[in-house]
Specification:
The chain is mainly α and about 675 residues long. About 50% of the residues lie in helices and about 5% in strands. A hairpin with a 4-residue loop joins β1 and β2. The radius of gyration is 30 Å and the shape is globular. The termini are far apart.
Length: about 675
């Protein structure tokens, strides 16, 4: 695309000059550093492409530049640009700011949380609001005002909205009006070029009938975007869509299929249309990740690769997908070039077969493809490893490539699988078996870790009993040796956590594999922030510095006095309020807020503990106070780890957040115990 005169372009997120990347779905240009954050968010948040080194359809590139030059960024930074609405004091990132945490937190808030987007007035019926916005979008796409349509989409308008009175979608309207850039934007946001109107005509038909033949051809390309992209990735060619819609490359040295390869193909053919569609979209996303990785490595200064700018080693977690599917998507990164090429070829062949309604033995188009790797080919792919946890359905497929984003499409064919009921039962059984095996393995690991820890504690207790049995109460001794006073033995029905003391650094799924659905952290995001903390009880409190010395001496007379229930409840509410503030900071990745939050919690805990006698007569009170103070002290120690001892030293924020949440749980538990004990004793 030719630009309209020289224009000073800057990064939309930090204002760095000469941005090299574009976020297609957000209509902004970004620099290398900010792009690394965009890529880590996933395509469901931001679809990125290099402006110079990636292959661009001309009209798509024109659409991005038009949005960027007409202030699309103000949509995502609305409240930052309006002084009357600035409440939080948040500021935009600067080019000199560090990627982590400053730029990354700002970008997450801007695009993932939509923290600065103009908010509509609250209404009781959100569905009515979305419908009104979608009707406005339906009307606006006939004009060339791209930023207005992007604003409507950002507020919740649906790109595939079917107007009940007019019987068309916004893409029908844009196609009839010849608004190519509007059509590009709608397709990016999920509009289907093959969707029929009330009379069965598609947007492609509308464009042709209105004489917009180039737009019609472009919409056909969009309809087959998925399979075109897969074929181009392997052989650098795309079908022209005049003589055919598919190119099926063939590995030049794999003419004889092994039994394993044949079995894998049968698995692929046995998938329902919905599961096959999901697999194809996941492979499409993996192709996009690999292509961007190649551009990323080619454009970076290799002498400074060890920086905050990081590549994306596997597909980020999409919270809209099941845990099983997210894990399967990430396993695609482990396929070497030959394995991945074989999977793509099988998907292309199967997509063509399903779309054209051919039998399972249908021949495919052949195109010689030189081997992309010298590694031995392992043909055994677990194609159904990304199957969704939802029940499979048999909805028809409309097109093998009608998606550029992660939303499901239909693909113009019928499900040709024989014995649908038997197949569905097989897939459900296979998923259930895999889930059961995974749970068994997890339980075995946790049980082993806990058994080792229990033996270690018992051994230390026997060794030290001879020394401390006279001077130290057993309850205090057990706490000092590493087990929370509130800890209870894990039973098979207990909510188990794969993060025992020794195993937590190795089994945290989110920090190693990005599987958000199984992560301990996400359990705190719904309902009561403390309810999701059940099971996170195994907290090591074995360090001597974790305890105040005044708690370790019980010499002198014991004081039977207790504070009033009202005072204890008041202080507990303050502790809980501060804990909730800490958990919110964890949810929003505000790691720099950990230290001040922990100090507030420690102060509230100190005030609460001061209500009680220094030497309470009741053992439950003493145990709860020890746990309360020790956990608060440990929380401060953990939160201080957000600041590395040496500049540039790596910090495992996932593990750190996990430990902080564990400490917070024990504080809340101890406070609750003190309220319960005080209430009970006062009644007596």
């Amino acid at each position: 695309m030719s630009r309209k005169g020289p224009r000073a372009e800057v990064c939309a997120d930090c204002s760095a000059p000469d941005p090299g990347w574009a976020s297609i779905s957000r209509g902004v240009l970004v620099c290398d550093e900010c792009c690394s954050v965009h890529r880590s968010l996933g395509r469901h948040i931001s679809i990125v492409k290099h402006l110079r080194h990636s292959a661009w359809p001309p009209t798509l590139l024109q659409m991005v530049h038009t949005l960027a030059s007409n202030g699309a960024n103000s949509i995502w930074e609305h409240s930052l640009l309006d002084p009357a609405q600035v409440q939080s004091g948040r500021r935009k990132a600067n080019p000199q700011d560090k990627v982590h945490p400053i730029k990354s937190e700002f970008i997450r808030a801007k695009y993932q949380m939509l923290a600065f987007v103009h908010k509509l007035p609250c209404r009781d019926d959100d569905g009515v609001t979305a419908k009104d916005l979608s009707k406005q979008l339906h009307s606006s796409v006939r004009t060339g005002n791209l930023e207005t349509c992007l604003r409507l989409l950002s507020l919740g308008a649906q790109a595939n909205f079917f107007h009940p009175e007019k019987g068309t979608t916004p893409l029908h309207v844009a196609a009839k009006a010849g608004q190519t850039l509007q059509a590009e934007l709608l397709v990016v946001y999920g509009a289907d070029p093959g969707s029929p109107d009330v009379n069965g005509r598609t947007p492609i038909d509308y464009a042709r009938q209105a004489g917009h033949h180039e737009l019609a051809e472009r919409l056909v390309e969009c309809q087959y975007e998925l399979t075109d992209r897969l074929a181009f990735y392997l052989c650098g060619r795309k079908p022209d869509h005049k003589n055919g819609h598919y190119i099926i490359p063939q590995m030049a040295d794999s003419l004889d299929l092994s039994e394993l390869a044949k079995a894998a193909k049968k698995k692929l053919q046995a998938l329902s249309n919905r599961l096959f569609e999901e697999l194809a979209m996941d492979v499409y996303d993996e192709v996009d990740r690999r292509e961007n990785d190649a551009v990323w490595l080619a454009t970076q200064n290799h002498s400074t690769l060890v920086t905050e700018r990081s590549a994306v080693p596997f597909l980020p977690v999409n919270p809209e997908y099941s845990a099983t599917r997210n894990q399967g998507r990430q396993k695609l990164a482990r396929f070497n070039a030959r394995e991945f090429a074989t999977l793509i070829i099988d998907i292309l062949s199967e997509a063509k077969r399903r779309q054209q309604g051919k039998s399972l033995s249908s021949p495919t188009d052949n195109l010689e493809l030189s081997a992309r790797s010298q590694s031995d080919l392992d043909d055994q792919h677990d194609y159904d490893s990304v199957a969704s946890d939802e029940d499979t359905d048999q909805e028809p497929l409309r097109s093998a490539g009608a998606t550029r984003n992660n939303r499901a499409r239909s693909m113009d064919s019928s499900d040709l699988s024989d014995g649908a009921v038997t197949l569905q039962e097989y897939l459900e059984l296979k998923k259930a078996l895999a889930t059961s095996e995974a749970k068994v393995q997890q339980l075995m690991k946790v049980n082993s870790s806990l058994s080792d820890e229990l033996r270690r504690l018992q051994r230390e207790e026997l060794e030290d009993d001879a020394i401390y049995s006279v001077h130290v109460p057993a309850g205090l001794y057990r706490i000092r040796k590493g087990v929370s006073a509130s800890a209870v033995p894990f039973t098979p029905s207990s909510p188990l956590l794969s993060c025992s003391q020794e195993g937590s650094r190795h089994t945290s799924k989110l920090s190693r594999h990005g599987s958000g659905a199984d992560s301990d952290y996400e359990n705190t995001q719904s309902g009561d922030p403390l309810l999701g903390l059940e099971g996170k009880r195994f907290l090591e409190l074995g360090k001597e510095e974790d305890f105040h010395p005044e708690l370790e001496s019980l010499d002198g007379d014991l004081d039977p006095g207790l504070p009033s229930t009202e005072d204890v409840i008041l202080k507990t509410e303050q502790v809980t309020k501060n804990i909730q503030e800490l958990l919110r900071a964890a949810q929003e990745f505000k790691h720099d807020s950990f230290v001040p939050c922990s100090e507030k919690i420690h102060l509230a805990v100190t005030e609460m503990a001061s209500l009680f006698p220094k030497r309470p007569a009741l053992e439950p009170v003493r145990s709860s106070l020890r746990l309360l103070n020790a956990s608060a002290y440990r929380l401060q120690s953990e939160c201080r780890k957000t600041v590395p001892p040496e500049p540039g030293a790596p910090v495992d924020f996932q593990l750190l957040t996990q430990q902080v949440i564990q400490c917070a749980y024990d504080i809340a538990k101890a406070a609750k115990q003190l309220v319960t004990i005080t209430t009970r004793e006062k009644k007596q």
